Amino acid sequence: MTDILLIKTSSMGDVLHNLPVASDIAKRFPHAQIDWVVEESFAAMPALHPAVRNVIPVAMRRWRKSWWASRHEIRAICKSLGKTDYDHVIDTQGLLKSAIITRCLSHSRAGYDWHSAREPLASLFYDHTYSVARDLHAVERNRILAGFALGYEPSSTADYGIRPPGLELDWLDFGKPYIVLLHATSRDDKLWNEKNWVMLGHELALDGFQLILPWGNAKEHQRSQRLAASIPNATCPPTLNLTEAAALLGKARAAIGVDTGLSHLAAAFNIPTIGIYTATEPGLTGLYAGQTAVNLGGIHKPPSVDIVLATCHRLLGDA
User: Fold this and answer.
1) In a shared domain, residues 239 and 200
2) What integer pLDDT is reported at residue 15 of this predicted model?
């Protein structure tokens, strides 16, 4: 039996982009035991993968506010990691914060080399380093690195390997077709104009769909309420944790979202998904799910409502 530890802590999109690594390993080594170190707020994501044995949450975002105050918690996590004699430790994050975690382990630490890591100094923490082109999508980079570290060549198709949790949401009738509109994101420059959402929502409502508008904080809640009030057959749901959001997305007919982690989660479930980009280019970190996911727009190039609607109709027709 082979014990393998994957380190991919954040962000949510990065964590989701690492799921195909677990699928590749499970396919190549059916008896391998895979553990995963992840930021505590995203622990629900690798837990969805049936090949992941243990999810080990860390709190780098919280710890860095006061390393000294967090020292006992950090020491306890490091001691816990050291109790398992992992055959392979693979850091696909390539940052100093993730590379430091590898120092809790005694050997077989693998990661990107100096020229491949997002933070080159991270490469100094590994026992084995590998060159992986930086102009590839994040999913491909993760899979190639793990393949180098474990001695196999990834297949041509990425498999996220997750299924939505079997969770009922008492405020939603899963029997009626619905589309999730993911309007919220961490940066204002990544938002799509509210008028666009309203126009799009009206057209989709005419097609007979319910429109669900999730939110994550007070400001997003207000926006969700405004949009729901302006769009026929639209719902501003109650607050959702990640498991509930996964249940919502997994049974949707489609998802349309800005550059946010939930858009990547929808794509990982292989439902028709459209990514709307306004402040970033999607080439290296955009949605990645074969023919079911489409990225639209780019830096200062938000897509029009007509293009988004036409793309949605095409994806639904293909599905």
Assistant:
1) yes
2) 98
